[in-house]
Design goal:
alpha/beta, Rossmann fold, two-stranded antiparallel ribbon, 20% strand, globular
Length: 208
């Protein structure tokens, strides 16, 4: 396994120094079974959803991320493929492009990296989660969904160390149980929820 890109090192800066955030931010990672899981979750969210969603899904490097047009046609949310130096806002979801890591900079903006794969994956869920934890600290929620490896477990643990909230899809409810099982082991205090309860959590998310 190659090393993580340097911006992704967890807990480099104390969570107390994280960027003040005027709206909730949710980071979400998924792999095998992601399409059906996201088709269950995202179309339920309204255009005035008060949070921003950043998503890393394992996509083959030689293919475009087809999830963006698929979900754009079905969602009220603003669905975008992340671009380097872009900002985020409530009511939107930003997907890591195929073959790029998606990172969050300390000012809350997005960055893309073509550094080596992490845990054989680019985009890496861990890279997104760890950099978002550094940027947003206790205002961040991390969600690990279905998947067939352990990407996301270390990143979810970084979110917890920064004071954020950890949610894991129940392995019994997931298409592929390995990823949520690894995340639950790494974060014993995480909330273990079915996909339908994760949908309810997202729909009820507020700025309070």
């Amino acid at each position: 396994m190659t090393g993580s890109p340097s911006p992704a090192s967890p807990a480099q800066t104390p969570a107390a120094e994280a960027l003040p955030q005027a709206f909730p931010v949710v980071v979400l990672g998924a792999s095998a079974g992601a399409v059906q899981a996201l088709l269950e979750l995202l179309p339920a969210l309204p255009s005035d959803w008060p949070a921003a969603l950043l998503i890393a899904v394992h996509v083959p490097p030689d293919r475009d991320n087809a999830l963006v047009p698929l979900l754009r046609a079905r969602c009220a949310l603003n669905i975008e493929e992340a671009e380097d130096k872009a900002g985020i806002a409530p009511g939107g979801a930003w997907f890591a492009p195929s073959d790029y890591h998606l990172l969050v900079e300390r000012d809350g903006g997005l960055a893309l990296s073509s550094d080596e794969p992490v845990r054989h994956s680019r985009p890496s869920i861990d890279v997104l989660f760890e950099t978002a934890a550094d940027a947003f600290g206790p205002t961040l929620t991390g969600i690990v969904l279905t998947g067939a490896n352990d990407d996301g477990a270390a990143g979810l643990a970084a979110i917890v160390r920064a004071g954020g909230q950890a949610i894991v899809q129940s392995p019994d409810d997931a298409f592929a149980a390995a990823m949520p099982r690894a995340a639950a082991l790494a974060c014993p205090g995480a909330r273990i929820l079915s996909l339908s309860r994760i949908k309810t959590f997202l729909m009820e998310l507020t700025t309070s």
